[in-house]
Amino acid sequence: MLPLKYLISAISLFACSAIANEVNIVHIAQEQREQYVPDDYLKKLLSKALVSAQYPADIRSVFIHPHQQRILIALDTKSLDLYWSMSSPERESLAIAIKIPLFKGYIGKRALLASKDSLASFKGVNTIEQLSKLSAVQGHDWPDTKIMEFNGLHVRPLANYQAMFTLTSSGRIDYFPRSFIEVHSDLAANKQSNLSIVPNLFISYPTGCYFFVSKRKPELAEAIEKGLKIMQKNGEFDALFNEYFAKEINNLPYSKADTVEIKLDNPYF
To answer: 20 to 30 A from 3, CA-CA: which of 21, 77, 154, 268?
Structure first.
């Protein structure tokens, strides 16, 4: 039989090893729709951030309702730990916002999807006043909707995500603003539609897409923030972003000489 002091040491070593090998289960929200390139990017970014922070994690997807506000409220339950979303004061009150822009500000740069038959309507549009004469569509609970309405733009809020593309493709809505990092995925997912990106015209506003973590998991939020900062410092963040989006951003139909950027104010950021 081992002497008591060796037995205690062995037990202590086993306990420390068990703690070191402990894996944290992280439940992330996954909307019940086709997964886009930005979804893959964010999952990989999250995984790499946790590795950088030396926070062992088993990341598991949980299918949720597409209404974003309900998703964030669900962070108060034990079924969901994390979600990514464009920020707003309301959302930041519901969960821990890790205020590192996941898309480097490009979530606030919006290409305009429109029916190919309606592209002529945008010729000569270069002010908010001119754009306000055309109709846009956005999610009924999206922060973007309030931003556009604040700036005097005509917005029709909808709850049905796919209907936004259908109405725009048919010409019943003039345009559907989509961020630079998701608009190509939108077109790929709607190949049979009549949609196109309006050339040489886009809108922009200051905002950020953040990881939101349940208030039950402050240690998870700390680990993610630590990991993201490490990735920013060593260049891994920029490298991953460019791997996913540099080519798509450069392929948008905007020429330097002719493109008009209509800047909106965002009082909610």
So the answer is: 21
3-state secondary structure of 242: helix
Measuring CA to CA, which residue among 214, 210, 88 is closest to residue 142? 88
Cα gap 22→142, rounded to integer Å? 37
Structure tokens at 74: 């669900």
Find the mean pLDDT for residues 71-97.
87
DSSP one-letter code for 76: G
Q: What phi, psi does 57 have (nearest 5°)?
A: -145, 145
Q: How confident is the model at residue 18 (pLDDT cuts 50, 70, 90)?
A: very low
What is the number of helices (H) and of strands (E) in the chain? 10, 11
Q: DSSP characters for 162-212?
A: HHHHHHHHHTSSSBEEEETTTHHHHHHHTTTS-EEEEEEEEEE----EEEE
Rounded to the nearest angstrom, the gap between the alpha carbon of residue 266 and the centroid of all alpha carbons in its chain is 17
Can you name the residues that pair with 262 across neighbouring β-strands? 203
**251: closest CA among 204, 183, 195, 190?**
183
Contact 263, 127 (CB under 8 A): no
Q: Any idea what DSSP says for residue 2?
A: -
